[in-house]
Design a protein that fits this description.
The protein is mainly α and about 900 residues long. Among the domains are: about 190 residues, 3-Layer(aba) Sandwich (Rossmann fold), CATH 3.40.50; about 60 residues, no CATH class; about 190 residues, Serine Threonine Protein Phosphatase 5, Tetratricopeptide repeat, CATH 1.25.40; about 60 residues, Winged helix-like DNA-binding domain superfamily/Winged helix DNA-binding domain (Arc Repressor Mutant, subunit A, Orthogonal Bundle), CATH 1.10.10.10. It is built from 45 helices and 9 strands. Keywords: ATP-binding, Nucleotide-binding.
Length: about 900
Amino acid sequence: MAALIGREREMAAINEVLDEVADGVGRVVALAGEAGVGKSRLAMTLLDMAARRGFRGLRGTACAYQSDLSYAPVVEALRPLIRAAAEPTDLGRLFGGMSTAPALGDAGLERTRLFEAIASLVADAAEQQPVVMLVDDVHWADPSSLDVLHYLGRAAAHTKCLIVFTYRPSEASAAVRAMLVSLRRGGWLVEVPVLPLSPVGVAAMVAELLGDSPPTPVLELLTDKSRGVALFVKELTLALREGGQLFRSAGRWVLGPDAAGAVPTSVVELFEERVDSLDATDRAVLEAVSVCADAATADVLGAVCSAIDLPGSLTRLRTFLIEDVADGEVLYRTVHPLLAEAVYARLTPSARQPYHAAAADAIARRSPVAVSRLAHHVGLAGTAIEPARALETLAAGAEHAVARRAGDEGLQHARAALKLAKRLGRVDLVPQLLTWLAESASFTGRTDEAVAAWWDAAVDATDPHERARCLMRLAQAETDAGQLVEAQDHLIQAADVLGDLDATELRIEIAQIALVLHTRRDELPAVLAEVAELERIGACSGHPKALALARYGRLELTRYGVGTVEESEVDESIAEITALADAELVVTLHLISIGTALGRGEHAAVVRRVALAIERARTANLPMLEVLPTAFCALAQFQAGAWDSALALADRALALGHRFNVSRGISLALAARAMVLLHRGDVAEAESCLAEASANYRDRRLGRLLDVIAAQAALARDDRATAARLAPTTGPYAMPVLHLQVRADLGDDVLDELDKLGFPYAAAVAGWRRGLFTQAADALDSLGLPFDAAACQLDRANVVAATDPDTAIAAATRALAVFDDLDAVAKSAQARRLLRRLGARPKPKDRPAGQLSAREAEVASLVAQGLSNAAVAKQLFLSPRTVTTHLEKIYRRLGLKSRQELARYIRSSNT
């Protein structure tokens, strides 16, 4: 760590004390805080600060395994002051290599003389230069060392000496507390509580560790698990990185599906000393609390620890446990959640099982029975619970979890139940358990496990309806994973299994997945066939789901130029499906409407639909359904000129997408991010996002969008050959106007295709390409498409520059204001070049170079001197990521692209 994080209050108090000591007023500073909170780090910073002010530093550390060694930390701290003495001295009783003064025959007097010799040693050193003496972890110090520290604290009052010690209040002995009371009463003590970091402090620390500002989901996880304890923040962050649960995507940190993770070994070791200091009885109660977790009520603990004096043990464990009230009853929790996880991690499976079995028995006797809690403990009790009973409980737990869409819980119970059912020969339960396993895997984004479970369920199923349903769900999981060929094969198998059986509902679901599959593969004949089949089923059965899906299919067909569908029809379909409580289909219907509105440039409609889709996903407790709507909204915000909002939404979609492994949503979010970056001049980063998107998920429709953005990037690099190769030349297009504009930039005649689209956005762009700049710009502006409107104005300025320079200057100036506001670097540069050619002086971007913010000016100056981002961060007490952010803003404001250009700019500004 390059800088101390979140300790401004403590540092202010320390600076004040150092001033007093430098003026000859000795002080004792007590840094109090629990394990891992950052006391030692703060103390070492204090020593560094004191050294820079001319203090001599001394340091000793008390250790748990040396608590029976008298004066050990004091000897360690004072040894650097010892010099050979010609005459015997009382200090010889502590330090080797010195002659010892004769014994006085009075132990008390000898002790007094020893303490006075120590005080004189420190005072003499302080006469030469101020002294700061640190003793770390005095809660472990032996009584004799505490007596010396107390004596030195009192004796230092009129010297340039600062005594500093750190301790844990929860582990402070009576002797430590007595010393504090005495020093406090004498007015010598300055107490500095070292509290857990605030969420802002956690964010700053994680940014230091990762070298980048972490997104909200990362901070929420780390803040919740660490509770602001600095050591835990560090160790959890490193453990997530090393375990692969925290990784980079699009240059940002994201969490994978299994980010909760195990407790780092270092955290377990930190708690071990405290836990090992307990007697066997109290340790057993602490273990029971860690095992029982949110079931650790007095009656459950009483059953688990039936042979223990529970009230007495709970009293003795008051520094380890807190009482909480949940649902009207007292619940016992550890003072820090990681303490419970660390205690649990220390237990072997064979040691845990009896605790879980006893907890399960206690929970089973309660009314009503908490199914989830009971299944949790039964699953972990292993052979300590009768197998048939365990299987029944675990199956009920899996069913309950699936009903609540609690994916991780459902996986835990279904896996355990499935293993047990196979061992007991309960083949009758296996198909249903496989179904619950697959459902739970889908909820948590474990697509591979879902695919495997649905396949096993299909193989085991004997009933044709059930086998067809499993094959259908298998195809759905494969479609989500981008395995489109396999998905189509399994849909065909599902239809074959049904044959002539009466299965209207199932046939509708098969047609629904087939419709999604064929649209992603852009297979028009197959889409037409599925829509016809749904209309046939709807006409025969009147089933609202079939009718709604047929409308959805017709809406998809409008992208191929086949027919029309009104927005009201989509709303009607959604209302019908909402009544059927099919959240996934409701969101799917919203998505197709969102895609259509996005392609038409109707970003307000996109935002409305996105809000409805996300609301439905949250109501159904299916956060993975938020990913695609959020990514679509990012694209709409890009169109609307809200580019910062677009980046924020893309980041949110990325975070959610990786958390639930929604591959298509991840790629769409990367596409949105690439579009903003490309238009802001970050071509290389945009191409990196596109490469990641293509590698992550690429069906034919999404691939066309990625290709057209890649073609734009190639044009930005003036590589027309690559752009021509990449730009799709046939529809349908996800964003048709965008595709046709790129082709127009390559010289293709696309006016007829724009005219055929028939909506206002396409008509405005067609007018723009025909040279009707004023009308087109006004139309684009009225549609809320500021970047397109400004680009149209700039084209107008270029066309009339030779014949009507005043009009050209006015149009280019208006366009430049929009481009600067959006940080559209390339377009800003084009507008400026035109204005300068016309003899106009373009307005400086955002603010003149001399009017950078004070912090930006500092960063720019240091970078121009050749310092790295890390070096600038250290000098200005910032995180490296904050420096990078400042630098990006400086580049955009000054129209620069590199550190070299910035250095030249600063040099020219100073001459």
